[in-house]
Amino acid sequence: MEHVLAPAGITLPQFTVLTMLDAYPGVYGADLARLTLLTPQTVCVIVGNLERDGLLARTEHPGHGRIRRLDLTGEGRARLSHCRAEVQALEAAMMAGLDPEACALIRRWLVGMAMPEAELMASSDARAPLLD
């Protein structure tokens, strides 16, 4: 994935941060770290770089002077949109040649990998073999 993001000047962790900011506008740094599964220190560096590049903006929380909300800028949304299109094209190329059932099975398996273990074990799809 890195090779399709690099021409846009975006790293994979930056893409993850931009994606979460799009999904959760106004999120705070600590919450962003939890959402992206990155350390708060790493998120702080990424946020600083994205802000420097004009892709996100920090604004003060109305009730807490020290808390900063994070939001995508117009340029951030545009860059994310471009990167998503590139990533989706890569995913389509990776799935080319697979039948729709195999694609659905792979997607269920990947989602299952992201689920908490208890939910994964309760899912009937989790016990299905990946390949027959």
Polypeptide structure, described:
- This protein has 132 residues and is mainly alpha-helical.
- 61% of the residues lie in helices and 9% in strands.
- The chain contains seven helices and three strands, in the order H-H-E-H-H-E-E-H-H-H.
- It has helices at residues 2-5, 12-23, 29-36, 40-52, 74-95, 100-114, 117-122; strands spanning 27-28, 56-60, 68-72.
- A three-stranded antiparallel beta sheet has the order 1-3-2.
- The longest helix has 22 residues, at 74-95.
- The chain is globular.
- It starts with a helix and ends in a 10-residue tail after the last helix.
- The model is unreliable at 124-132 (pLDDT under 50).
Number of helices: 7
Kindly provide the radius of gyration, computed on alpha-carbon positions and rounded to a whole number of angstroms.
18 Å
**Major beta sheet, specifics?**
3 strands, antiparallel
Classify the secondary structure makeup into a structural class.
Answer: mainly alpha
Shape: globular
Quaternary structure state of the chains depicted: single chain
Quick one: how many beta strands? 3
- Mean pLDDT reading: 86
The first-to-last residue Cα distance is 28 Å
Q: List unreliable stretches of 5+ residues.
A: 124-132
- Percentage beta strand: 5-15%
The strand order across the widest sheet is: 1-3-2
Percent in helix = 55-70%
State the main characteristics.
132 residues; mainly alpha; 3-stranded antiparallel β-sheet; 7 helices; 3 strands; disordered C terminus
SSE layout and pairings?
Layout: H1 2-5, H2 12-23, E1 27-28, H3 29-36, H4 40-52, E2 56-60, E3 68-72, H5 74-95, H6 100-114, H7 117-122
Antiparallel strand pairs: 1-3, 2-3
